[in-house]
């Protein structure tokens, strides 16, 4: 191994930097287009969203230089400290945070607001990479798997308490990382079963789903008893009883939570998504208008600043969560496809580079970056085109906001720094 050079830009993967620059630049163009009134004199002014976003983009330059200034060993050595500090920032929201739309997710600094949850993702990815790359860590042991779950879901739990369920859902992306590092398929199967049972309980009601599932378990048990005899029940009765108990508690708990804990607007969103009711003027208004806006762009789009639905401000929150609808209307299917392809190239490049790392920490962190980006893109685009419920998740590098932009910049450029450092002494 060689000693690292003093040049902080040495061995930087410029393809990643190029894709990042294109995404950020095109994101700003669409934020500019989503503004009802355009004033060229306000390009560097806090009086407009596009002006503020341009300032946020400018501030990423010193942020990137600061990230590249430290070598890869720094991020591995202090990953636990970064993680703890990020958890403290979430805890401080409860006494000092500003409540916006019913959630205490922001620190208010005059004209600037910061959302800690956007930064915590990067530091959680560092903490997961640190844990799983430890030479003494055996991921096959249940107790060690639990350690990983605690690191992942502690910030998610604190974010849920704000409450901000959308940002908390993102932490499921780390299951892709754990899967790469040897997590058993059983967790994925259990997760799929949980999601299916949740949806079925909403669609068909607690009694019908519970009765059907218990009948299925009973028939399957009788089949195994018929096939293997009394020996099967003698050694597996406790597993069968446990399965009955867990299934019953989960379905009853889902029904109770949905009817008594979920707020009405949350139930409405699920019911609109699942086709149980139509509400294009109420809770389904955002998604309905977003779908209309995207479909109106057709193949080639209406052109820059020519989206009448965008300019007419028909889609609420179009600068942030629904920014993809601007792309769909003004740039059409072709423009939307190019954006998706750019994200795919970004994620593929990260995974490709991660697999070339001889240092396990860098590889695991790389998978964390790719997984978080993938989850954000899929959930945001799925939400905007009506395939998923509205959960308030930004589109990376596109959605308006300094916290989102800086959070994803930190996430990506820490990996770029680790990748540049991979051929030197650790």
How would you characterize this protein structure?
The protein has 426 residues and is mostly helical. The protein has 2 domains: 312 residues, no CATH class; 71 residues. Helix content is 68%, strand content 3%. It is built from 17 helices and 3 strands. Strands 1-2-3 form a 3-stranded antiparallel beta sheet, covered by helices on one side. Helix 5 runs antiparallel to helix 16. The termini are close together.
Question: What are the segments in which pLDDT stays under 50 over at least 5 consecutive residues?
Answer: none
Strand fraction band? Answer: under 5%
Distance between the termini: 9 Å
Helix content: 55-70%
Largest sheet geometry:
3 strands, antiparallel
What's the domain count? 2
Q: Order the strands across the largest sheet as they lie in space.
A: 1-2-3
Mean pLDDT: 85
Count of DSSP-assigned helices = 17
Q: Provide the gyration radius in Å.
A: 24 Å
The beta-strand count equals 3
Structural class: mainly alpha
- State the shape: globular
Strand/helix succession: HHHHEEEHHHHHHHHHHHHH
């Amino acid at each position: 191994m060689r000693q690292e050079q003093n040049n902080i830009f040495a061995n930087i993967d410029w393809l990643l930097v190029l894709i990042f620059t294109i995404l950020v630049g095109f994101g700003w163009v669409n934020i500019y287009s989503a503004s009802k009134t355009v004033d060229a004199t306000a390009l560097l002014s806090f009086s407009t969203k596009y002006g503020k976003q341009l300032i946020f983009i400018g501030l990423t330059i010193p942020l990137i230089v600061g990230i590249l200034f430290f070598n890869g060993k720094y991020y591995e050595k202090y990953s636990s400290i970064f993680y703890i500090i990020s958890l403290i920032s979430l805890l401080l929201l409860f006494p000092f945070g500003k409540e916006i739309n019913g959630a205490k997710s922001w620190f208010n600094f005059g004209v600037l607001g910061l959302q800690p949850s956007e930064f915590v993702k990067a530091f959680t990815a560092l903490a997961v990479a640190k844990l799983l790359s430890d030479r003494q860590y055996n991921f096959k042991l249940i107790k060690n798997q639990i350690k990983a779950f605690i690191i992942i879901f502690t910030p998610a739990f604190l974010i849920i308490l704000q409450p901000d369920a959308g940002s908390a859902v993102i932490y499921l992306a780390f299951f892709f990382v754990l899967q790469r590092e040897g997590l058993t398929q059983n967790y994925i199967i259990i997760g799929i079963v949980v999601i299916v049972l949740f949806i079925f309980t909403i669609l068909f009601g607690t009694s019908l789903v519970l009765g059907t599932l218990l009948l299925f378990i009973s028939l399957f048990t009788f089949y195994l008893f018929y096939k293997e005899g009394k020996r099967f029940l003698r050694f597996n009765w406790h597993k069968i009883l446990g399965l009955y108990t867990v299934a019953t508690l989960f379905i009853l708990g889902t029904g109770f939570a949905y009817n008594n804990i979920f707020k009405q607007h949350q139930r409405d969103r699920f019911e609109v998504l699942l086709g149980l009711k139509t509400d294009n003027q109420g809770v389904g208004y955002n998604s309905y208008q977003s779908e209309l806006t995207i479909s109106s762009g057709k193949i080639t789009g209406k052109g820059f600043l020519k989206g009448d639905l965008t300019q007419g401000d028909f889609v609420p929150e179009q600068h942030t969560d629904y920014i993809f609808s601007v792309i769909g209307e003004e740039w059409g299917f072709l423009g939307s496809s190019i954006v998706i392809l750019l994200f795919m190239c970004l994620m593929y490049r990260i995974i490709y580079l991660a697999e070339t790392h001889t240092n396990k920490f860098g590889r695991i962190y790389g998978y964390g970056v790719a997984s978080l980006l993938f989850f954000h893109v899929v959930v945001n685009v799925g939400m905007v085109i009506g395939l998923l419920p509205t959960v308030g998740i930004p589109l990376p590098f596109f959605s308006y906001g300094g916290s989102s932009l800086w959070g994803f910049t930190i996430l990506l450029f820490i990996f770029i720094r680790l990748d540049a450092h991979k051929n030197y002494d650790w």
